[in-house]
Amino acid sequence: MGIRPVVIAGGGIGGLAMALTLHQIGVPCLVLDSVQDMRPLGVGINLQPNAVRELYDLGIDDSALDGIGVATAEWALVGLNGHDIYAEPRGRVAGYRWPQYSVHRGELQMLLYAIALERCGPDAVQLGSKVCGYEVQPDGSVSVQVERANGTRDSLQASLLIGADGIRSAVRAQMHPSQPPIHWGGCLMWRGVSWAKPIRTGASFVGLGTHRHRMVVYPISRPHPDTGLARINWIAEITLDEVNEQQMNGWFRQVPIETFLPHFEDWTWDWLDVPALIRDAEGAFENPMIDRDPVPTWVQGPVALLGDAAHAMYPTGSNGAGQAIIDARVLGAALCEHGVTARALAAYNERLCGPISKLILRNRGAGPFGLLNKVDELCGGHFDDIDAVISQAERTAFMAEYKAAAGFAMETLNHAPPTLAPGSRVPS
Asked: Is the pTM of this model over 0.90?
């Protein structure tokens, strides 16, 4: 009987990062994804330096990432009067050994997909194949139930099953059958991409407004040499006092811009015209800001959760996709230490489940954007001198605490050993 592969449920960013990590450490794997055609879906996301470090260690560096995004130079929070509350350099500009990147989510997924097919082989990813359940076997392996696009079902024998199948994970649902439903706090988001001139440094991530009424703006491409225009990712958000089920179930649906533009019609400053930016988008997509309550464990014997299946969180700290990449690398390191065993999954769980569960709740409380809330509570978002409202020391301490919790405090990260030492392999 041949070596049983590690089966990965889900071909998103986390699942593909897991596949590339397994290939790097010498473990055969198979990725199963329900989509029949891999397409670059989504809009902009941010990868913090701790996640970019892991991509570099997979051999995916500036030469590839510059083609799907832009290295972020600044992170800023701005009040309702258009004045800075907090701003700091990011990535290499700040002194990190690795950059921070703003990228198109779908293009990152397609990049990882192409590299996985090249390195792992053309049959390493099976599309039109949904993992719908599993059964742990007496010998410690796992039987994975798969539903194919033609409606047939079969089972695959695997050494381990990694559930990277997203916020509506079937693997998680079986592992935690009594888990609460998806959590929504009432925030609606509208996302789009427009061609416009980048603001501030030209590579700035800007959060503007309050926790209940906010815009996030950042470029995901370099300016065109002829026009000076770049692809600008924007997210418009409001928190509703009354919510209904239909709004929560409307996941990434396209809506007319006129349905939400009135919320931001007067958001104009000499450096940013929000209504014009929104109107210039080819389209807008609405979805609720949702997450899941933390679970006590991500592991059941030879089965582990990864990415959103483990820790779906509000996108307030720019660490959802990045944490999925880090999950894969931490799990890879555990496999190198303990072999392809349930013990490796337990070690991965011991390292990450507790701290990341706390991060879920921190992001539910607005994450780094909580500083906007503080200013709103103190002065309604309007001020002449921010230092008279909240001191520079308080603002810096607030951000430092978040970066430490999210795993990208600069000095700690810069001096940390690689998650996977060069040349690491799973013991034979």
From this structure: yes
